[in-house]
Design brief:
Elements (H helix, E strand, L loop, with lengths): L10 H26 L4 H13 L3 H25 L8 H15 L5 H13 L4 H29 L1 H20 L2 H24 L1 H6 L1 H22 L3 H23 L3 H4 L3 H17 L6 H11 L5 H30 L14
Helix pairs in contact: 2-15, 3-4, 3-11, 3-15, 4-5, 4-15, 5-6, 6-7, 6-10, 6-13, 11-13, 11-15, 13-14, 14-15
Amino acid sequence: MAVFTAEATPLRTKIITGIKFIVFLGLGIFIIWLSLRNLTDSEKTEIIHSFKTANYYWVILAIVLGVFSHLLRTLRWMILLEPMGYRPSVKNTFFAVMIGYFANMAFTRLGEVTRCGILAKYEKIPFNKAFGTVITERALDMVLFIMLFFLMIFTQVSNVHDYLDTHVYPQIYSKFNNPELIRKLIIGGILLFVGFVSLVFLFRKQIGRSKLFYKIKNLVLGFWEGLKSLSQIRKPFLFVVYSFAIWILYYFMLYSCFFCFRETGELGMGAGLSALVLGSVGIMITPGGIGIYPAIISETLILYGSTRTTGLALGWIAWTAQSLMILIVGSLSLILLSFNKNPDGKASESQ
């Protein structure tokens, strides 16, 4: 049962959501198949042996670090909400964050909507304002991710340069070194823009009275409120510390899994940085990074001298540690949230 009130979802929307889920899940399964199909029987046996001999105490540490990273995300979100006059409890905000990650494992970006809905119900924070701060928060995370990406390029150039030259740069050059394609893109963009502006002008009265317009308007206003809250935060130093600490904990959550195996434990912290950056791309592509995350970790570690089988085993262990943390803490948050009480002292009923 849902934990916040929402309008009944139309059948068409449910069908589209279901199709998206099937497509993303299918993509993850397809990538799993691609990463395993060329393994020999001896390599499969070696991966199973790696799972049996791994030191899982490091996995426990990774899960603990993951929980702390999300606690810091909770505290940082509260700093963004404070300038708008909202001071939600740490408990409910943490529950909302974890349930949001839990929802993201099913559908990419569903968690952002879910956690704002939870605060709207349990803390009476308007959805559009909470959502505005989440968009601001995601934008900041993207900036930090880009910084980490360039840090990886500059510090790990000897390891990743050949890979980028072979797999990444040629594709970029082939796309943007084509004058005919660029000309078509420019003309197409101009035509789309002119067509869009013309339609908006012709149907401006109908658009102004539509429910969709009001929803978009509220989201834009909420985003603006989120941006204003960023400029008005009362603890800027703490906000910056939390922002960097979140990614530092992400790093050590993954890097601690390296010590599950002697081979990967000797690769160094640079390999951990590359795995964090490139693995994060996989999480952006499929829900929870299913399938693609272990494959990317394996390919990354090969650049540092790891065997393919050990890399795959480590990738799956790291992915499992992250997923278990979200499943366990997210589920507990969902259960504990259902026992929350309203101001009248009665337990809140799930809708």
